[in-house]
Each structure stands twice: as C-alpha cells, then as structure tokens.
Amino acid sequence: MGGGAANFLPKGANGSKRRDDSDYVTKFRDDGYAVATTAAEMNDAAKRSDRLLGLFNNGNMDGVLDRKYLKGGTVKKFPEQPDLTEQVTAALDVLSRNPRGFFLMVESGLIDKYTHALDMERAVYDTIMLDNVVKLARDWAKARGDDTLILVVADHNHPISLIGTINDDMTQTPNVPLRERIGTYDKAGFPNYPPPDKDGYPPRVDVSRRLAIFSASSPDYYETFRPKLDDPNEPTVTGSAKGTYEANERYRAMPGAMLRLGNLPKYMNASVHSGEDVILTAIGPGSERVHGQIENTEVFRIMAEALGLGHGE
Ligand SMILES: [Zn+2]
C-alpha cells in the first residue's frame, strides 16, 4: 500500500511512467489481489480479501499536514488517500487471517522526503502520524496476548535538530531579519501551537512561536523561517549548468527570507542523510535481544527468529 501507481500502469495509460507494456495492476488482480485506490475501497477490500494492493497516488502520497489541514500538494487530485493508521488497520485485518502469522513493514516514508526538502513542519506532522501507528500496533498486539514482536527503527538519520523557536507573528514585514527572531536557550520559550486535536496534531502550524528546526546539510536555498502553507517546500530548481541545482527564487520575496549558502556540492538538490547510529526500540517476544549497540544485520535475525524461520542459534 502506498503511492507510486505510475510504476504499476502500462506505457500509454493515463499517468504511467513505465516504458513497457507490463500492467502490474492486472497482474496483481489475476493473482487474486483486491485493488484499492481510495480509503473507502481499501476498507471495503480489507473486510473480504486476504490479498490487497493499495495504490492511492500516482506519485508520492501526501503527508498528513496537507491531507488533513492545508490541502496542498496533490490532495485536490487525490482527495481520498488513507491515513497511515487506516492503512495499518487494513493491513492487520488482512494479514492476521493467516493462521501461520505474518510480517508487516510500515514506513512513514515522507518524514525522510520532507526533511530532504527542508520542510520541517511536514516532517514533524508525519512523525506524529508514525507515533499514532506505533500506538495502534501496540494496542493491537496487546489485545492478542504476547505473540507479536514490534520493532521501531529508522533506516538512517538526517542531520537536523531542534535549536529553539522562531518568534514572529507572520502578519507584517519584519523590520529586523527573521533570523534575529530565533530564540535560543532561555530566549526560546515554549512554542504556542494550539492544543493537539484528537489525532495528536496541532490544528495550526502558522503560529507566532514556532519550532526552529534546521539541517546541518543543505544546497543553496532561501530560508524563510516559516511553514509553507500552500505546497511542500521546493528549496532548489534545476541550475543553468547541466546536472546542477540552485536556490528556488520563488521564496526570495517572502518577508524576512534570506539566501543561505549551502555546504553541499551543486549537484545536490536537497539536504542529505547522515551517518549516526539510529534508535531501535522493541516490545514483544524476542525484544529482549534488543539492547546496547547492535549491528543492523542483527535486526534481520531477531525478526527471522520471531517468525520461527531457519535453524535458530
Ligand atoms: Zn532519504
């Protein structure tokens, strides 16, 4: 389940990115899969099918900030994309019908993509969505007793950190650069997002004391110090020299925006991953093997053993 329908459709079909005539939607159908393109179709299929393919967007799905609140990105074109919590509920319904057990991989993949694009608000909202999914999975496992291993891990880091708040009400052209309105240490104060709604999200991001999250890696780009309320951030555009990128002039005129010279080569159009160890948390049978510092390949063995595969130790 996810986006990327363009890669499943044969050449010539509306929205296809394929260069051949393979029709993967038909192949899946022929193999007994129910195919869903909206949340309603997914929920319906999950009730009756034991195989389910969900393709909810031609490209990447939209993140939760656009789907639920701002309606930017491709939400108007694909208005019925399910939330990750709904997808996981459907997946658990379908997979748990198998008496031999199952493996389910869930990714809140836009956390990464938004962070590449230096769109920190959207990345944070999709992190809250992942948190909701972890809660959902834990409640589901708890209701079954103690037969489900849940692992939560990142596949890599981004070099970003919360360093304080941005203090600006977004209503007037500031007479000082917005950079001077970043509060650090005791000047940061607490952000003033409205209380979270029932799903855990602040219903507004354009508040006057906002999280200041910056990346330590970037191409040249215009830092606007404010959430992008129309569409997800696009920090760069194709440069004049082949294979290069430059700052997107679209943000230049935003009040308080400043050109920030990057530390990445010109062939990079976005922020990059970083090499720290990542956090792995676990609950359920086999989780006792998760402690201290372990190699990433060990995660595979922990999962294989929980599923009763192979020869064990
Ligand atoms: Zn990435």
Summarize the structure.
The chain has helices spanning 24-30, 39-48, 64-70, 84-95, 110-116, 120-144, 296-306, and strands at 34-36, 52-54, 150-153, 160-167, 182-183, 209-215, 221-223, 236-238, 245-247, 258-260, 280-283.
Task: Tell me what you see in this structure.
The chain has seven helices and eleven strands. The protein has a domain at 160-260. Strand 8 (236-238) and strand 9 (245-247) form a beta hairpin. It is of the alpha+beta class and 313 residues long. Bound molecules: zinc ion. The site of zinc ion has 3 residues, from helix 5.
Write the layout of secondary structure elements.
Elements (H helix, E strand, L loop, with lengths): L23 H7 L3 E3 L2 H10 L3 E3 L9 H7 L13 H12 L14 H7 L3 H25 L5 E4 L6 E8 L14 E2 L25 E7 L5 E3 L12 E3 L6 E3 L10 E3 L19 E4 L12 H11 L7
Parallel strand pairs: 1-2
Antiparallel strand pairs: 3-11, 4-5, 4-6, 7-10, 8-9
Helix pairs in contact: 2-4, 4-6, 5-6
Zinc ion binds next to helix 5.
Structural class: alpha+beta
Q: Note poorly predicted spans.
A: none
Helix content: 25-40%
Q: How large is the count of helical segments?
A: 7
Give the distance, in angstroms, between the N- and C-terminal Cα atoms.
Answer: 34 Å
Major sheet characteristics: 3 strands, antiparallel
Strand count = 11
Helix-strand topology string = HEHEHHHHEEEEEEEEEH
- Mean pLDDT equals 95
**How are the strands of the largest sheet arranged?**
5-4-6
Radius of gyration: 22 Å
Strand content: 5-15%
Bound molecules: zinc ion
Can you give keywords for this protein?
alpha+beta; 313 residues; 25% helix; binds zinc ion; three-stranded antiparallel β-sheet; 7 helices
